[in-house]
Amino acid sequence: MNPATRRRCAPLFRRAFAVEGRVTAARLQICGLGFYEAHINGRRIGDHVLDPAQTDYEQRCLYVTYDVGDHLRPGANLIGVMLGDGWYSQNVVWTAGRHRVTPDIAYGEPRLLAGLEIRCADGTEHVILTDPTWRCAPGPITQSNIYAGEHYDARLERPGWDAPEFDDSAWEAVEIVAPPGGRLEPQDMPAIKVIETLTPVSIRQAADACCMVDMGQNFAGWARIRLHAPAGTRVQLRFAETLGADGMLDTASTGVFATGVEQEDVYTGRGGGPEVWEPRFTYHGFRYVEVRGWPGVPAAGDITGVVVHTALPEAGRFQCSDERLNQLHRMALWTHRSNLHGVPTDCPVRERCGWLGDAHIVCEYSIYNFQGQAFWRKYLDDLETSRATAGGLPCNIAPGRRRCGRAKPDWMAAMILIPWHLYVYYGDREALQRHWDGMQAVIEHFRERSTDWTLSGGYGDWCDPLHGPTPTYTPEEVTTTLWFHECARICARTAELLGDADAAARYAAWPARIRDAFRGRFYDASRQSFGSQTADAMALHFGLVPDGQEKEVVNSLVRDITETHHRHHSVGIMGLRYLFEVLTRHGRGDIALGLMHQDTFPSFGGLIQRGATTLWEYWGEGSHTYNERPRSLNHPMMGGFDNWFYNTLAGIRPDPEHPGFRRFFLEPHPMPGLDHVHAHYDCPYGRILSEWRTHGDRFVWSVEVPGGTAAHIVLPRSGATRRLDGPARTTLTDSSVDRT
Fold it and tell me: Which residues are catalytic?
């Protein structure tokens, strides 16, 4: 389309064609960049939104295939496509002058590649391609941006534009443009879809001639409106995660200081009857909607919250007798769901980027809750394309042009950790094979950068409670070296699994050398500690504590929590991932549970008291601000504790020596104050169930093991063990003295 005609609108494309005879099969293959919506004969195709998923378009572009045989008919037919800017033509945020981003953050103007293959009953075949015979015109979306929102003028609609009878003689001829440059690949992962709708918990008339809508939940998606108003009525919707002290919308946490834009949709009505509208090519992170221009006050049915994210099927479910734990589990789930948009994003507001460190912290709890193998495999391919721009090593962010440079070591570790998680949880050996070159490039880079087998230069235990993102309690070289050790261990094991004898011989001794260097540099024998809660918890988890000193380090960790920090944690995202598991598995589940119930700063309870329904980027005493810049209230990197519910309280834990849960552990950890836990996890072989109750000194435990697997069962009170081969379901009891 002519740029002067397009301006910022979402263009419409159409192609009329005829089919002789009865259609027996037809498929549409389409790649519309940035996003597309396809129609055939007046009917929308499929239920995907914000499609296709984001990639580095100069290296790969995803296409989607639809079965459309029932959309076609003998005679005249029409295929129509609406294109949005999406990530491909996003040139509003992160452009030159903002955070040193290059001026070519956008890849180009929206473009379309499609092919419709048709087979008729008489054996004839037709192929409709995107070629010069298509026509185009501006549509009613007058501007759209993934961050800033969408403007829609219903008066500019072209009724019947997607039907064959429509007269397109005044439409422009299309322009044939160069392809983005990337190879075409099928979108094998689940698409982004509308998942559910939310009814507002309140709608009130606010000051300054506006209405305030509270959805009751922070989430990612958009608002759907139903309007009765005269033609030209302009309804403005602004979105935010929180309200100010005056009860008015506070957009600061959405990252206005960084993006320069607010989340805003504008609908201009056509008049003449009820109008229902929702945006197509943007999404928002929000709980509250400020409505201006509405005739009167909208009723509850007039505005609806639409939850939108990658449609990953459920894999696990957790529930227990402690409502605080249930609430925190729900918060972790809502936070992660808000950040599943083709990539694992860091937040649905300010950045919406696939930061590598956030992703590897989130990956395991994502797998426990969602069937995400295809999703994470796609993200690993995004890491591979980022390697092509940074000398063979991944960038801090993947995919997209806002890469923020070559990744720091603890973020770069995602290139090793995520393939390993896919292998352990799904038995995905191909993930290791596919990314082995990248894994080796990363571990060799770590070795080259290390000094005497310790590694520095990472971001560290990001967002601990004291001073914002920069770690205060744990020096970054401590956690960076811990990740160096874990990555070396994984690479040594992967080399063995893949039969790479040279690499296996090279890496075999690395973990022990890093372990010894880590102990020598960071372990304080007089304090029996590595210096912080995060350092002690991670060292215990990864087996870096000096032999025979585990109990003493646990005691030091407990003293730091109970005495130094007065029963509060002092951890950032890395400590949160392991703290609760380590405490519980070492017999101090009471401390872990106490931290979950702490209500004063810093604590989960403190966030809940301040209205949190998702996990915040920063603990923030009295606010969500540091360095005078408000932070996101929807950050899944803080959700690593959710693993604890499944792998420790319920005790469902994979065995890396028998990946994909062919063999696995069932080892729950009851504790005083927790009377009941129910969890299930759908592994590749079927459902694993762990459900237990305590009755006085009796522990009653129902377990289910799917066929083709075997569970190593540990009874929590007696310590007795047994093997249970599936398929099997049984109830076990244990009544000896509780070891905790």
Answer: 351, 621
